[in-house]
Write a structure and sequence with these properties.
single chain, alpha/beta, Glutaredoxin, two-stranded antiparallel sheet, peroxidase activity, peroxidase
Length: 185
């Protein structure tokens, strides 16, 4: 009986050690979770994106830049086979997001055919910002408007950030994405 207790305790301790090691390997930028848009599923940022190049964009359904969803989807389709991930994070910080996640999902999935990962609406600025955006701000800058873009390398470091006016097919953004893709090799 004592042997079984000892083995159970050993398993618990080993599990804790593995969890600590995994957290230590996960870049600060990717430590945390977000609720996935139109889903019961949560996005474990580390599990989903660690070791992969990533573009993070704060989005809004009723912004003049909302048509950039089409270009973001094209960017994702162009580079996804090379490992690129795109994460859209809707935010009402600039008062241009839909009132419900259902309406946000309709704009993203129906109107623009988005297939990359989208979270539910989050705060991306100030003290209420989710940890992901606090770390993005620490490594680069806080979003000044909707559709700010952050290119992150496979090690979880921001390699470039771009303002809303930078389109997803901008040569500078594409060059940053290609640098991020090269970082996983």
């Amino acid at each position: 009986m004592r042997m079984w207790r000892f083995l159970r305790l050993l398993v618990v301790l080993l599990s804790a050690c593995v969890a600590q090691a995994q957290a230590a390997e996960c870049p600060a930028l990717l430590q945390g979770e977000l609720q996935k848009l139109r889903s019961e599923e949560r996005i474990d940022l580390c599990a989903a994106f660690a070791g992969k190049p990533l573009v993070v964009v704060n989005t809004a359904s009723f912004c003049g830049f909302t048509p950039q969803f089409k270009g973001l989807e094209a960017l994702y389709q162009r580079y996804k086979d090379q490992g690129l991930q795109v994460l859209g994070v809707p935010s009402d910080d600039f008062r241009q997001e839909a009132d419900s996640n259902e309406e946000t999902a309709k704009v993203c999935y129906v109107n623009y055919g988005v297939t990359f990962v989208m979270s539910e609406t989050q705060s991306v600025t100030g003290h209420d910002a989710v940890p992901l955006f606090k770390e993005l701000a620490a490594q680069s800058q806080t979003p000044r408007w909707n559709f700010s873009k952050y290119v992150i390398d496979a090690q979880g470091k921001v390699v470039a950030s771009f303002p809303s006016s930078t389109t997803p097919d901008d040569p500078a953004l594409l060059a940053a994405v290609e640098r991020a893709i090269a970082s996983q090799r």
